[in-house]
Amino acid sequence: MNAPLRRKPSPVDAPPWQLGDIVDELRAAREEWRHTHDRRPDKGEREFPSRDALSDIVSKLCGALFPMRLGPADIQHGCSEDFYVGHTLDLALRALLTQVRLELKHLARPSEPDAETLEARARDIVQQFAAALPGLRRLLDSDVEAAFRGDPAAHSVDEIVLCYPGTLAIIHHRLAHTLHGLGVRLLARIVAELAHSSTGIDIHPGARIGRSFFIDHGTGVVIGETAVIGERVRLYQAVTLGAKRFTVTADGTLEKGAPRHPIVEDDVVVYAGATILGRVTIGRGSSIGGNVWLTHSVPPGSVVTQAFSRNEVMENGAGI
Amino acid sequence: MNAPLRRKPSPVDAPPWQLGDIVDELRAAREEWRHTHDRRPDKGEREFPSRDALSDIVSKLCGALFPMRLGPADIQHGCSEDFYVGHTLDLALRALLTQVRLELKHLARPSEPDAETLEARARDIVQQFAAALPGLRRLLDSDVEAAFRGDPAAHSVDEIVLCYPGTLAIIHHRLAHTLHGLGVRLLARIVAELAHSSTGIDIHPGARIGRSFFIDHGTGVVIGETAVIGERVRLYQAVTLGAKRFTVTADGTLEKGAPRHPIVEDDVVVYAGATILGRVTIGRGSSIGGNVWLTHSVPPGSVVTQAFSRNEVMENGAGI
Amino acid sequence: MNAPLRRKPSPVDAPPWQLGDIVDELRAAREEWRHTHDRRPDKGEREFPSRDALSDIVSKLCGALFPMRLGPADIQHGCSEDFYVGHTLDLALRALLTQVRLELKHLARPSEPDAETLEARARDIVQQFAAALPGLRRLLDSDVEAAFRGDPAAHSVDEIVLCYPGTLAIIHHRLAHTLHGLGVRLLARIVAELAHSSTGIDIHPGARIGRSFFIDHGTGVVIGETAVIGERVRLYQAVTLGAKRFTVTADGTLEKGAPRHPIVEDDVVVYAGATILGRVTIGRGSSIGGNVWLTHSVPPGSVVTQAFSRNEVMENGAGI
Amino acid sequence: MNAPLRRKPSPVDAPPWQLGDIVDELRAAREEWRHTHDRRPDKGEREFPSRDALSDIVSKLCGALFPMRLGPADIQHGCSEDFYVGHTLDLALRALLTQVRLELKHLARPSEPDAETLEARARDIVQQFAAALPGLRRLLDSDVEAAFRGDPAAHSVDEIVLCYPGTLAIIHHRLAHTLHGLGVRLLARIVAELAHSSTGIDIHPGARIGRSFFIDHGTGVVIGETAVIGERVRLYQAVTLGAKRFTVTADGTLEKGAPRHPIVEDDVVVYAGATILGRVTIGRGSSIGGNVWLTHSVPPGSVVTQAFSRNEVMENGAGI
Amino acid sequence: MNAPLRRKPSPVDAPPWQLGDIVDELRAAREEWRHTHDRRPDKGEREFPSRDALSDIVSKLCGALFPMRLGPADIQHGCSEDFYVGHTLDLALRALLTQVRLELKHLARPSEPDAETLEARARDIVQQFAAALPGLRRLLDSDVEAAFRGDPAAHSVDEIVLCYPGTLAIIHHRLAHTLHGLGVRLLARIVAELAHSSTGIDIHPGARIGRSFFIDHGTGVVIGETAVIGERVRLYQAVTLGAKRFTVTADGTLEKGAPRHPIVEDDVVVYAGATILGRVTIGRGSSIGGNVWLTHSVPPGSVVTQAFSRNEVMENGAGI
Amino acid sequence: MNAPLRRKPSPVDAPPWQLGDIVDELRAAREEWRHTHDRRPDKGEREFPSRDALSDIVSKLCGALFPMRLGPADIQHGCSEDFYVGHTLDLALRALLTQVRLELKHLARPSEPDAETLEARARDIVQQFAAALPGLRRLLDSDVEAAFRGDPAAHSVDEIVLCYPGTLAIIHHRLAHTLHGLGVRLLARIVAELAHSSTGIDIHPGARIGRSFFIDHGTGVVIGETAVIGERVRLYQAVTLGAKRFTVTADGTLEKGAPRHPIVEDDVVVYAGATILGRVTIGRGSSIGGNVWLTHSVPPGSVVTQAFSRNEVMENGAGI
């Protein structure tokens, strides 16, 4: 036997994979995709918004909206605070302008309007967004107060702003909803997903939500695109305000666009795990119990609970 | 034609928003809020704990508690490990002292005790917290072992420490619970929310949890402030140990403080999606099935499952 | 009065905790654990994979797989893209090789094969993993297209790649599943938990999932180790494909290894909150309604909904 | 026993050094030093300014002084600029206040004045420093203009601010000199050394320098503590304005405090490598040639050059 | 007098400086400057190259030119290296294009050519710069070899590339000189100052330097704008190749543009501290001794040393 | 002619350079170099020390040597300090071990000893280096005290450690000299260049320097490889202790290895700009004046000054 010619590898050897080949195959896969989706290979620079950029923008907007709570550690009331707010807002809005340009260019693909028109639109969007911020701050103040009233465990409004995932979710939503209304829906969606990722609360930017809104705990909450929520509404974890999706259209695709999520009127409370589906109306002041499954409207003042309050079987229990 | 006087903007033009105006309006909104909440505009430095600081502190404490698993890559048993633990603990405890001071000052607002008394209290709190750490490590070891025994997919205890969200949640909880017991409830809450954000497991720092506790998967678990959990208890995802919140007091606010969450005795298992509400007792050794909705106590050894084991309707199925 | 000899502390005093003692006690706790678990105190360097390293590797692989969407902002089609893909892949695969070595060494504890054999195995694993990447890209393209078809709110495939948590989850899963199949199960698990933490979607790396898979919203989804999912399957949030865990073996431990999670055939849709437990088969083309609790097989084409479509009690409602 | 029992080390073995012993010996060395220098081992927190902190402060002050040139990339004239200046100055001055406190506490060691007096002094120092900044900006503008006039290679004043090491040195010096005048000499020194390290220009903070000062190239320039420089003075690289140090006092120490460096009057030029030593006066409008060694005063309008204009020996040259 | 009503400040009080006033005064100073220098206050975005950006670009170019020495730690010959070089170059050239645009726009101020012409020029410049890189690498290889031959202390060419400040200086110079030749002189200057700051070697980008150039030690070297240096020239620290600046023009300004620095022919060595001034020629193969002061040409093969080889006075020496 | 077919480029077009071609040409240049220098293209991983890694190591060693001055801001005497020192040293020494391995492998090229022998040597070197640290600390204390005694401007020893470039240089040198003595000369050289770059002081690691050494100002100091410096020596800026390089060997190369730099005995002072060349001896207690050029030995107690104390020509001065 004269064979073991090939010694075993050691950590200093070159790795055995064929880097060049894999790069070639990955290019082939990309080209196939681009061909299928009719992407032009010579399009030039990438035109697409960036999740990281939006994360930074939202973080700056949070600081500008709540400088003493969500801003840096060492600012103060008065001059110091205004300079911080002004500078931070300046950075955030310019960065947002860049992202808005990217979305507009991305959407512009088929018809390709001229660059100056896009620029004018982008500026107009950010200007309107900027003008909306003071109003947003007041709305968010109402949400914070609602959370304070709604949670027996809260000791101060400051705690609400700093610790509650529901606060984080509603700040993101109100920013995202404003962007959505201004037509930059992809940016809005990215902002919403930033909150979804860190809180488990998934609110579509299209949802319309009144003042003094509060979500407690929050993990698993889903609120759909066309949902309409009144004032002083309170939700708990794992509540779904969804579409009733069982009907499928003739060609096998799902219906689009039309109002398909619930209307929840003022002063409604929806407890944990409740599922409300379809364009139903939950009348003002109603209370929807935990785990309730609801696919029809209920009148104002309803109190809905599960039918089976003692539904479980005690397999070896002697009784209760 | 003599009109297009106003040329279209280009990306090098100054942005069109009125930064100064928006800053003024945001200040007005803040002043309104401060007026409503009776905040003193000349209060001086911000006194509030920082979520980022606590995140860093917890990360250091994790390293100090489990140096070979959650510490840096290149330490070793022996001297090297002790130096790492000592230095990391030193940094963490000092940083914690700063945060404790901030919470005490924040809470001190109405009565304003003197600075030295606050300082003495802050030091006392951190000293007690530090002294509790070796005991916490032993408790956490019991949790890791419980996870290893409880999950057929686990191959080693190391995997439990490194990969399981339930481990992350219980480490955070045991730290938060200790802080809560020492009176720094805001810090405790922030620590709890750090875990909530990255695991979807929401345990109130007040909850009392015995040794050898294990949560599998975990997303959507909610454990309330006054819950009491015995030893060797196992929970799955989306379990709620909550308050029964339907009763509302006369003045429209929610009741506070009193025991209102379940007592779960030793050796109980609660399967995914089960909801247990109110100050009920789940007797030792019981097993609560998936999706069960339970609002009353059950005796030791109970096995509770859903009443409707074949409840679903087959709309077009010929049978099963 | 001659007593307050001991002045109150000020922030510049040394902290009062006994750092040395706590370090000693923590060491004692570690030694106890190591003794119990038979760890050798003189083992030398730490041999364990790093979550942070894997997070960085996955992030690089995402960039290499989708350079124009998940890569850096300023690359372009053509040369630029290939250089980026090649360099990023090079970094990712080398870093992965390091992590694979760490897992193999960790697993090697009892029998201790020689270093060169481990090295050869590690290289072989990464080589195979690298070779699988172009195929993975194609599979993922099918998933992205499925998401686009499945969600009426989606405006472009780009949006799917950038914003959808379900996309993030399936990218992580397909990478994790490949690692799992190559025997590095701890790495696979860590990759799965990275997705779990940021999306709330918990897919065990062992689960086999066919092409064109789509999870919408996603928070709370749990898919077990031996689940088998066909092509064109769609899941919504909080769906569980779990084991039926009520039976416990005689010695009190849980059964291991055997197939214990559902088989979901092609073209099935499972709506939000549905729970399917045990080794049951959901026949091709079936539709499982929201919140359904299912522990038996259903034939192809079944439409399963909750039995109680109007189960809730209206406590004060006049009717509906 | 004849046995190479001890195998050779491999990279995974524990390192052979005795970490604990070295730490002990280093502690012994520190204790010896502290004993010699009468340092109190129980002094509590470190009270010493930080070079990194000052580097950051100076960088912020540069931005606040020259926002469009030394500030961040994306600010603009008008509101945006003022907000940036205000916020940056706020951060810089607060950080400076912290450093001033540290120096005052450090210097306070022997006599230990009360904390509130120190605090009042620290605030007074920073207030005066802040009030001096607009004047400093005007002085620096005169320096920039002087550089532009003095260097035939300069194309714009902007280039001077951005590229010239002499500009960096004079900005640092004017800040350091102001701090020096306010009594925080250690901070002043650290600021001077920051410039020294990056430009090779070593100006003692005590040196008094008039407006329109310009140093070209600059490496190796040294300007002593009691030097006095008039207006419109120009220096080249490697110029020394030093003390004449040959005389040593009887007890072997060097003389302190008294004026011992040159006075350079208005409109003087000193060429590269010239050395001027002692409390001599270089009369207004004089020109001191390269490499000149000067230890006595010269009257206004002097032109001093080396005596040996053809001093070199041509060893093998036939002539020139 | 019963007055000290005003308590002493404590660290939590607001700082006493008038931030708003200082910001106003700084703005006044800026406006004065802008008025003097005729800057248009409504100019829009800043158009100026960034030192930090160029530092990063040069660092990337160094990596692309010498991937195994100045690139990241873990690349290899072959595919891996080319991908790294390609990707790094791609990033560097795009970033450079941005900086070139900024300089062109800055210079364009008076005449304001249209944006597309500037863009075309910018692209042309970077294209030519990119095409020059392979030639630069070869030139730099000759410099490295010259250093290896010229320094008895050097053990390998790798050491030269990694450790020698002279190498750093010549890499920067050859890049800066190329930029200078392409008309982006401000970028060139910034690159030169980057080297000046970290090595103390100050070479004007305009200087023309032949292959196999070596500077040893280097601190204090100054080479002027119109200097011309042949092949295989060697310089030591503190050598000046400067202009003879004593003559001043009638209107008090310094002469510009014309050749005014030395010509150093092939194979010349200039020892430490030598100063050569004016448009003189140092003939091929000459050797200029340490500290020599030379203001006239010398023929090929000259050996010039100081006239005073024993010039010093021994004040108390008995003899030598 | 109606032709402007080729539109002008805009910033979104792809850049015009041929990235692929340049990468190819750069590879060709590298291959040529490797061919010339006989580098093996299939050598595997890079084996070369890293400047950044050494910078970090030195920074950690500085912290471990002077924890209260060069360590982080918040440590204290006692336990806290020891834990910091131990952990930091642990990190530094392990990182150094990695760098030592890299240098040994690099040097090993021709003869290629086995891996385990190299590993043993590397460990031995770091062990000896570690053991030398306490002695180094004591030596450095003597240097700090010498600086304090030698500079009339110094107010405290702490200022010396924090602000003086001479201190930085001697710390680096003593570390580098130790590494040099242990045979890792490339590491030593890199450490020396780190100091050179930030202080302008260039000390070859081979130079032997006695205790209580002080360099003031320092820019431009050069100390050669075989220089020997006694105790209590003081140098000022721009002093050269160099080789006398005029003699060149017959084959045109420079002589190597032999002692060729000055011996400076105890208690010597060398003033700014003095140049001492060759293997001469400066006798104990001598004083060498500024700008003196010295190429021969002087006996103990010599005071050497420039011969021309009034050498300059006053061109238009009426007298002096």
Automatic annotation (TrEMBL), chains A, B, C, D, E, F:
Known catalytic reactions: L-serine + acetyl-CoA = O-acetyl-L-serine + CoA
Claim: NAD is one of the keywords in the record: no
Keyword field: Acyltransferase, Amino-acid biosynthesis, Transferase
GO MF: serine O-acetyltransferase activity
Source superkingdom: Bacteria
Entry's Gene Ontology BP terms: amino acid biosynthetic process
Enzyme Commission number(s) from the entry: 2.3.1.30
Family from the record: Belongs to the transferase hexapeptide repeat family.
Name of the featured protein: serine O-acetyltransferase
Gene source species: Rhodocyclus tenuis
Lineage: Bacteria, Pseudomonadati, Pseudomonadota, Betaproteobacteria, Rhodocyclales
